[in-house]
C-alpha cells in the first residue's frame, strides 16, 4: 500500500559520505566546542552499546546540547548535510534504539536535566528529557508527590517517552502514553513543535503527543515533557506471595485483575529468577514462583485489598501472603526486582543477557508463560522469567553464550517462537521495550501490511529525508522513496 | 512549515463536479440498492444537521453499509471519482463534524451495530462502530461488566472514538483514548488497517490507535473497535452536594482531586443549570451550585471516600453531602445530568442551543468558571454551565436567539473569550467535543504553527486526495497541495 506515501527526497538509507559527516562535525565543533562535541572512540562506542545482542553500531560523533535551541541547531546542521541524527537518553533501551547503522550524530541529552516546573496543585511537572526517573522522584519527595513509571534502569524521561516504556506500576498508573500530557519536539526540519497543553484531557486535533510517545526518535527529538504526577499514597502495603507453580501464580493474577482489585504492582518471578535475585541481592526469598504485590490507598483500603488478594492466592493454592506496610522491607524487595536483569546475568557469567518482552491478553497469561518455560527447557537454554503480569506482560532474560553458534541459533529460534506465541494469542511483540532494530521484523505479522504502510507514510511525512534515527521501527524499503 | 508536507494529488477543497457525484451515486445505487442508498432530501438534511449553530451542510447521498467490506467498496468508489466521504454515527457531535461542506457521500454506520465478541475474562469487547453506548451496556449487564464512557447523547461508539469523547466517568476511567485498545479502519485507499491487538499495552511502533482516536473521520473510517471494560463495582455511592458559590464548588473539586480520592464522577451544575434540570426533569434539587458526586469500589471503600469528600465540602462551606447507594435515586439524578443539554434548551424556547467546552488545569478551574460566569452576565446572555470538573472540563450551553444579530455577535464574542481564557491558563479549546468545523480556528493559537503543519502533513500522508471528511480539523490551505 505504498500509495499512501508521497516521497520527496532521498532517505538516509545509506551511510552519508565521509565528507558530509566531516563537514557536520566541523560545524558542530565550532558551535559546541571540544567539551560538548566528541569523536573519541570510547565515547562513540559507549553510545552505540545496545545492552542486547544486537551488534553495536557507533555514531560518528556525540554532541551534548544544553538546551532546546542547541538541539534545533544540531538538527539543522545535520539536515542540511543529510547526516543521520540519533537521540540518546541513558542508553538503556533493549532493542538497539540507539544504534547508528548509517552513522551520524548522537544527540545525548545528558545535560538537559532540569526540572523546569512542578505544578503540585495540578499534579503535573515539566522536565527536560535528560532528567531520570529517580532524579525526578528525589526532587518531588518533599512535596508528597511521585512519578510512578519505573523501568529497571534509572532511565531518562525523554527516552522513556520515546520508547513508550512502563514498569512495575503500569497496571495501576498506566504507561508513558497515559502519563504524558504534552511534549516539545524538535522536528526533522529543526522547528520546535508543542504537542499539547497542561489540560488533563483534550479533543483538539490529532493526538501528536501519543504519536511521539513510542516513536523512538524516528519522528523528532523530545526536548521537554509535561508529565502527570500522583500524590504519595497515604498507605502502601506490599509483600511476596509464593505459589506452587507459575500457572497458579498467573491464575492468581488473572483473578485479581478480573475482580477489579486496584493493585498497584503485581510482579511475577519464576523459580529461576528468584534464585538469581537471592544470589545477586543477598535475599532469602523462598525459591518457588513468587508474586510481588503492592497496594496503594488509605490504611483501610490497602488492608482490605491485601486481605482480598490473600484469599484469592489461597484459593489457587498459593500463599501465605505476608504483607507489611514497612517502607524498608518494601524498598529492599523492589530494588531486588529492579535488579532482576543484572541478577539474571550473574546466573551465568560470561554470557550475553538478552531481554525480550511480549504482552498478551491476561486470560492467556498462564498458558503463555507455561508454554514459554517448556520451550526454554526443550531448547536447553537458561532464561529466567519476570514480568509485569498484571498487564499480561512478561520478560525473558535469556543468557546466551555468544561463542556457541548452536546456542545462539537456539536462542534466536526461541525468541521467534515467543513472539509467534504472543501474536497467536492476540498479543503484541513488545509490551514496553519497543521496536528499535530488534523487533522491526515482527510489526507486519502483528499489525499487517496496511498498518506498516501507514507508519511508513507518517514517517515520510514528518521526516522526508529519513534522517531521524534511521533504521528503527519502519523498514526503509517500505517507504516508497523516489 | 509546509516543508513537512509532500503533496501528490489535488484535494477535495472544492466541491466535485456534479457528474462525478452522479456517477458515484449511480454506482453506489447499483451496489447497495434503494434501501441502503438514498438521496432523499429529508434524509440528507438530517445527516447534515449539526446540533449546533453552524449552518447545516447536507451530503449528496447517504449510504448504509452493512459490514466492513461495504465500507471499503464505498471508499473505493468515492476515491476513484474524487468525491468526499463523511462518516456518520448518531449525528450527535457538536462542532459540525458531520457536515458536508464540499458535498459527498455520508457513510452512516447505523446498521453496523453488532457486538462481535465479549472477552469477559480479559475485560474487553469487540464492537462494530454503530453500537451505541447504551446498547453496549445493556448487552453487558448480565455479565457484570460495563463500559464507562457516557457523553450526554446515546452516541455510537465509532463516533465516540472518532471524536475522542469522554463524559462523566472520565475522571476515573479515562477518555476514548484510554479505553480503546485497537481499531479497524478503512483507509482513504480502501484498504483495511488494524491498529493494535488485545494486549493491554504495547510498544510496537507508532500509536496508530491513538492517532485515529480523535481524527474525526479525516484519516479513515473506523469499522471495528476493541474497547476496555470494567467490572460493575461492588458498591456505588453517590449524591448531590450544594455549595454557596460556584467558586466554593470548584475548590472542593480541586481539593478532592489533589487529595487523590478516586472519585468516579464529579460534576458541576451552576445555579441556572440546576433550575433548568429541575424544570425539565421534574426534580426538586436545591437551586444553588451543585456537585453531583459518585464513588465506585467496595462497600467500605465508597463509604470512606464519601465521608472524606463530605469533610472537604464542609471545610469549603458546602454540604451537607447526602449520599446513598440506592440505584433508583442515582439513575434518576444521572439521567437528569445527561439531559442537561436539552434541559438548558428548554430554558429559553425558540433559541438555538450552542454547547461549547474547554478544559483547563484543575488549579485554574474556579477562576475560569467564575470569570466565564461574569462574562456571560456582562454579555447579557443566557448560558448555564455544567461540567466534568474533575478533569478541569466544563461546558457552556449558550441559548441564542438566532434572529437577534446583536445577540449572535455577543455570543460569538463570548465563545472566543472562553477559548482565549482557557488557552491563557494553559488549557485546551476543547476537552471532549472535538474540533470539527467549529474549532479549527483555535488550533494554531493552542498548539502553534508547527503542530498544525504536522497535522496537515499526516493528513496528507494518509489521505493524499483530501477526500476523508474534508474541511474538518486541518485547514485545507495549510496543506501544500500542488
Automatic annotation (TrEMBL), chains A, B:
> Which residue numbers delimit the FAD-binding PCMH-type domain?
55-232
Q: Which GO terms describe its molecular function?
A: D-lactate dehydrogenase (cytochrome) activity; D-lactate dehydrogenase (NAD+) activity; FAD binding
- Alphabetical list of Pfam families matching this protein: FAD-oxidase_C, FAD_binding_4
- Respond yes or no to whether keyword Flavoprotein is given for this record: yes
Q: Which InterPro entries does the record associate with it?
A: FAD-bd_oxidored_4_C (IPR004113), FAD-bd_PCMH (IPR016166), FAD-bd_PCMH-like_sf (IPR036318), FAD-bd_PCMH_sub2 (IPR016169), FAD-linked_Oxase-like_C (IPR016164), Oxid_FAD_bind_N (IPR006094), Vanillyl_alc_oxidase_C-sub2 (IPR016171)
This protein's source sits in the domain of life called Bacteria
Q: Which biological process annotations from GO are given for this protein? A: lactate catabolic process
Keywords (A to Z) from UniProt: FAD, Flavoprotein, Oxidoreductase, Transit peptide
Q: Does the keyword Cell cycle apply?
A: no
Q: Which cofactor does it need?
A: FAD
Q: What is its EC number?
A: 1.1.2.4
Q: Which family does it belong to?
A: Belongs to the FAD-binding oxidoreductase/transferase type 4 family.
Q: This protein is called what? A: D-lactate dehydrogenase (cytochrome)
Give the originating organism: Rhodoplanes elegans
